[in-house]
């Protein structure tokens, strides 16, 4: 990399990679930054991810925040943010939530970086759905709202995930000049430009996403029970499993006698997701008329992927939905109205010719305004406006391997489609992807182009089985089978009462975890690599001081506190598997 490459920190109290819309959005945006900037990422660590690794060219550092409740984990992450700012200098810091944003805003003047707040959702709105036991904690909720306002007012720019979100932020005092909107998008390169016709019988209905109450799955199940009296259809629910909501949904399925009609599947990524969408006839997003969907807003990446795959969309009639789709490729139903949703399902089931026409229009719309290349270019232009004269310096020497990479902030335009090359991960299709330098010995990399050859020269461990070199991986499932026959049951985790805190969150079974490991593909160290790292001598690697011991359960500091020097943190705990060496490790900081 050039010595003039500006350093950027992407900071988020979330897990990357993860089978969620948030992780997909973060991954795609990072892919646009790494060809131009020296990017560090600071995120939360999950049990199946390493402490540090290369992720699409970014140095991804993960903080083990423990298994306490939300305020305790947020406080642990805040201390890690403060230590990271002591470790390195950054021209710009990009964050996604107030848990990371409060310390950044407090230290912004001291360190002199520009600050970008990416608002895909606000915890003060969503925590009542994701952590319902905290809604009654008035002190915590009031502090959370103050922290959000503090971050919004202190940031140099705000990036909203939808026009509805931008409108809501203006009611909180954020000016229109300060706000940029990058709506939901999809990686068009991974989907066929001529999608298969959605003309199956019975009708194959696909839902992608989590099982939170704002998604409207209960309305969808009720509508399906009404629709099957007039037509044949199959519904596949694909996404992360929420133990509490899963139990309620299964109870509804038993009560409505939908056992042979509705099936649950673990998240699908990459080629599995493309195949699953290609095997479906329509995609559904039955959003409820909740504060999250009608006031706050959010980027609807599931709808963007439906359209990119050329699938007609059946979605709630909300301003948030109409930002992405129109009546040529979508049918809108009254939000929360089971009867209206059922009538629209029957209408689509009995009219395959209409579905085929809507499929063609869906792909055309996606190509016109939902390209991930356009989103990455818009983000780079926003970075350029924040960095000013510093952004006009040449940032990377052009080479034969990276001729399509922009070398200055004036060159940011959607890239032309790249010729076909190595198999890439979800989100790694044509566009601004640039092969990175070869990793050093012992370094873990997740850049697909670097891993492709290695994947064919060593055995792959999938679901505990070893396949011969060059053999295709074991498929997650036959896509068509998701709509034709009940799959093997997904092991349920122990159910926790609704009032249970995060400390008692259930842990996935080994079988479910192995399936998730396979879904992630080469976007994370393989089991073989992790075993090699565990046996490597501890002295042969260096580890950045980003890990942190869980903090005692105390309330997070209010944003009104004055900017002060970072507090002394407890020594980072020893980890079972030492972090791999990176090309530019963060300096050790004094404990």
Strand residues, percent: 5-15%
Uncertain runs are 393-477, 485-591
Structural class call reads: alpha/beta
Alpha plus pi helix count: 19
Task: Indicate the topology.
Elements: E1 7-11, H1 21-33, E2 38-44, E3 52-55, E4 58-63, H2 70-87, E5 92-95, H3 98-111, E6 114-119, H4 123-130, H5 138-154, E7 157-160, H6 163-171, E8 179-181, E9 203-208, H7 217-227, E10 233-238, H8 243-255, E11 262-265, H9 270-279, E12 282-285, H10 291-296, H11 301-308, E13 313-316, H12 319-322, E14 330-333, H13 338-349, H14 352-369, H15 372-387, H16 448-457, E15 460-462, E16 465-467, H17 481-484, H18 510-520, H19 527-535
Parallel strand pairs: 1-2, 1-5, 2-4, 5-6, 6-7, 7-8, 9-10, 9-12, 10-11, 12-13, 13-14
Antiparallel strand pairs: 3-4, 15-16
3D structure, described in words:
The protein is α/β, with parallel strands linked by helices and 591 residues long. 36% of the residues lie in helices and 12% in strands. The chain is built from 19 helices and 16 strands. It has helices at 21-33, 70-87, 98-111, 123-130, 138-154, 163-171, 217-227, 243-255, 270-279, 291-296, 301-308, 319-322, 338-349, 352-369, 372-387, 448-457, 481-484, 510-520, 527-535; strands at 7-11, 38-44, 52-55, 58-63, 92-95, 114-119, 157-160, 179-181, 203-208, 233-238, 262-265, 282-285, 313-316, 330-333, 460-462, 465-467. An eight-stranded mixed beta sheet has the order 3-4-2-1-5-6-7-8, sandwiched between helices. Strand 1, helix 1 and strand 2 (38-44) form a beta-alpha-beta unit. Helix 2 (70-87) packs parallel to helix 3. The radius of gyration is 23 Å and the shape is globular. Mean pLDDT is 75; it is low at 393-477 and 485-591.
């Amino acid at each position: 990399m050039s010595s003039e490459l500006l350093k950027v920190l992407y900071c988020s109290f979330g897990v990357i990679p993860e089978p969620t819309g948030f992780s997909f959005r973060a991954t795609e945006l990072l892919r646009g930054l790494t060809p131009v900037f020296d990017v560090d990422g600071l995120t939360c660590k999950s049990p199946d991810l390493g402490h540090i690794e290369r992720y699409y060219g970014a140095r991804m550092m993960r903080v083990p925040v423990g298994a306490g409740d939300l305020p305790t984990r947020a406080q642990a992450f805040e201390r890690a943010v403060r230590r990271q700012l002591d470790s390195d200098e950054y021209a710009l810091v990009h964050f996604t939530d107030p848990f990371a944003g409060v310390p950044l805003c407090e230290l912004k003047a001291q360190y002199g970086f520009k600050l970008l707040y990416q608002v895909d959702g606000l915890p003060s709105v969503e925590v009542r759905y994701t952590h319902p036991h905290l809604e009654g904690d008035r002190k915590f909720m009031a502090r959370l709202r103050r922290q959000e306002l503090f971050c919004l007012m202190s940031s140099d720019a705000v990036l909203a995930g939808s026009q509805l979100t931008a409108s809501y932020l203006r009611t909180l005092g954020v000016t229109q000049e300060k706000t940029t909107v990058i709506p939901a998008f999809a990686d068009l390169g991974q989907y066929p430009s001529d999608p298969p016709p959605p003309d199956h019988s019975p009708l194959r209905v696909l839902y992608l996403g989590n099982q939170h109450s704002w998604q409207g799955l209960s309305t969808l199940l009720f509508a399906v029970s009404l629709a099957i009296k007039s037509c044949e259809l199959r519904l596949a629910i694909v996404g992360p499993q929420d133990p509490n909501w899963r139990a309620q949904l299964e109870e509804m399925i038993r009560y409505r006698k939908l056992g042979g009609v509705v099936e649950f599947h673990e998240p699908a990524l990459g080629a599995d997701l493309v195949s699953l969408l290609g095997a479906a006839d329509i995609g559904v997003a039955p959003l409820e008329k909740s504060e999250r969907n009608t006031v706050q807003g959010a980027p609807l990446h599931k709808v963007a992927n439906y359209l990119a795959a050329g699938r007609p969309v059946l979605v709630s009639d909300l301003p948030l939905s109409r930002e992405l789709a129109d009546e040529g490729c979508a049918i809108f139903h009254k939000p929360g109205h089971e009867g209206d949703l059922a009538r629209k399902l029957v209408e689509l089931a009995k009219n395959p010719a209409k579905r085929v026409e809507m499929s063609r229009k869906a792909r055309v719309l996606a190509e016109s305004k939902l390209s991930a290349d356009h989103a990455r270019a818009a983000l780079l232009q926003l970075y350029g406006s924040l960095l000013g004269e510093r952004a006009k310096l040449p940032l990377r020497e052009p080479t034969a391997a990276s001729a399509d990479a922009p070398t200055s902030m004036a060159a940011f335009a959607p890239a032309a489609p790249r010729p076909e090359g190595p198999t890439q991960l979800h989100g790694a299709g044509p566009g601004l992807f640039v092969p990175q330098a070869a990793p050093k010995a012992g370094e873990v990399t997740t850049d697909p182009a670097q891993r492709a050859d290695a994947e064919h020269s060593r055995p792959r461990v999938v679901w505990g089985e070893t396949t011969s070199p060059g053999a295709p991986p074991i498929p997650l499932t036959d896509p068509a089978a998701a709509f034709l026959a009940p799959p093997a049951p997904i092991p349920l985790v122990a159910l926790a009462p609704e009032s249970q805190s995060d400390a008692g969150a259930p842990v996935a079974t080994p079988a479910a975890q192995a399936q998730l490991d396979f879904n992630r593909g080469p976007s994370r160290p393989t089991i073989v690599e992790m075993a090699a790292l565990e046996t490597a001598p501890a002295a042969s690697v260096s580890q950045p001081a980003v890990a942190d011991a869980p903090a005692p359960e105390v309330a997070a500091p209010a944003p009104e506190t004055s900017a002060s020097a970072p507090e002394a943190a407890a020594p980072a705990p020893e980890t079972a598997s030492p972090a791999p060496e990176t090309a530019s490790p963060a300096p050790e900081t004094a404990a």
